[in-house]
Amino acid sequence: MGVITCTEKRITYERRNEITVVEPYGKDCLRVRFTKNGKVSDEKWTLLDPDSQDECVIESDGQIATMTNGHISVKVDVGNPWFGGYVTFFKDGKQILKNRFEGDYDMRAVHTGGDNYRIKMIFDANSGEHFYGLGQERENIFDRKGSTSDLCHYNTKSSFPVVYSSLGYGFFWNNPAPGRVETTRNHTMWVADSAYQADFLIYTGDTPAEVLNKYCHLTGFAPKFPEWAAGFWQSKLRYECQEEVLEAAHEYKRRGIPISAIVIDFFHWTEQGDWKFDPEYWPDPAGLCKELLDMGIQPVVSVWPTVNSKSENFQYMSDKNYLVRTETGLFNTFDFCGNNTFMDATNPDAAKFVWSKIKKNYVDLGFKNFWLDEAEPETHPQTYSNFKFFVGNGAQTAMLYPYYYSKMFYEGLKEAGEEDIILLTRAGYPGSQKFGALLWSGDIESTFENLTASVKTGLSMSMSGIPWWNSDIGGFYGGHIETDYFKELIVRWMQFGLFCPVMRIHGDRAHGPNYVERHPGVHCPSGDSNEIWCFGDENYPILKRLIEIREKMRPYIMKYMDIASKEGKPVMRPMFFDYYDDEICYELEDQYMFGEDILFAPITEQGVTKRKVYLPEGEWTDVNTGNTLTGKRWIEAEAPIDTFLAYVRAGADIISAFEK
367-381 pLDDT, tens per residue? Predict the structure, then answer.
């Protein structure tokens, strides 16, 4: 049946081939580890040390042990001799989670080699429970109840193994192995495909804000948001030379359009892994940087972790084991414009070497804002067990890569004396937020379906502890700028971008009949134009006004970014975040709060000009009419193409930002 042993701060349950340890981890939080090895590991991965005192009380009669830590408690019962012990969790005495067994109990941990096992933890499903979080992927769902998800990273998908439950608790699966999670009607199941042990934390709070705050105490808070980043970002695939960047910047200034940043995308370099500008097309990058900064525009430059076999740094990095290696077969893990592998961001010496190149060839020239593309890293095929990182085999550690990639840049910039750090990155992991990671939804198609899904993606990231998020306004590829479809799409997406933490237009626009190659034969040529005056005369004043509104909203955005950094509350919030006592708000997936004072209801379907909006309790001012509406009811609102639907809490001074 097993043996329960209790000490002042630990319950240990042991039986043949199993050890389970339950401990407090700061106030209102419990950490559970389970292994088939001879002892549990103290490895924390990205988990921080607890920064608050627990309130641990343990009682045991030898058959049942209980631990209470503030508002959360656990009961460990030796249970059925055939299946092993039951572990049940309670919030203020009400059951929230209980483990269960499906089939032979030994199937919880199947040997995969060495000290590693395929581990799964299964819990009873709770009727009426909602789950939110799990990071981002291209799915049109926000409430994860009734769904399944692979735990892995790839372009358009960045997994965060953390959820918020509508029962008032958070769950963090502290394991960087690729795996799977099922939050279905018959059970909740977390799987690590190959790991030394199961490791998870459960924490509670009276409100969603309190629960998310505890998660940030476990993994880190975002730093102070750079004030310039609250404005409008201009980007495209790609500006092929420095003259083209300056032409776009000067045209925005000439037209009097507020612009905060302009992005220099990939293949501005000589070769993947050289980490420096190509002098043929970028003869004076320091001068370019200074001219942009003098105009009040921050340059953001793309850096990839890929290293081509032709790179001047490849052989040295290979000899020093600074590259992601393979257990068998050839070195290359990414066939894109040549044979490439990735620098091993988990190796501290490799990080120092690559950062020395970044500092010399970018930072010392004035560039301090970076776009960390390919940060998953994007490998083909994703045979995790074949990847060898400094921190271990990919089967056990692959999900850590984007965390260490952001860490390398953040710590390098800090050492260089920078304080306002923001890193536009395509993937993350719990804790990435403390390195200034601004995630985005990856290379999604330019469709209304993807616009619809992006609303859910942004909200999911907010509930995963990532307050800095954005999407490519207009979608990344497949957009034909001269078609009526795209002209409508870009307006609706820009309206959504207005109410995102960062407002950034980007995309690989399809070449239209008027496209002229600027540099015939250039490696990786650009897409079509992507500046706001290129989408038709009817659209231009609409898009310009949206950017002007964003400029007026910057103090409001900074207010809530400061709150995010201090308290963990995201700027982009699901409706239940502030209205957690309203059951309707838990089912709203296509409208949200932007800060505490603005309710935004996007139009995300082609040809649609009206929709239903739920106004929660209180009084709300329609930004289009100025009318005051009483809440806790549904309304139907009209939204022609030049109109977005937003409602401001009565009395909030942000209403002035929307005045024409």
Answer: 999 999 999 999 999
